[in-house]
Amino acid sequence: MPTALTSHPRSDTFRIPKRKRHVPEARAQVQRILKDWALDGELAHDVATVATELVTNAVRHCRVSLAQVEVTISIRGCGLLLEVSDPDRERIPVPRTGDDQEETGGRGLLLVAGLASRWGHELRPFTKCVWAYFLLPEESR
Question: Collapsing DSSP states into helix, strand and coil, what is residue 58?
Answer without folding.
Answer: helix
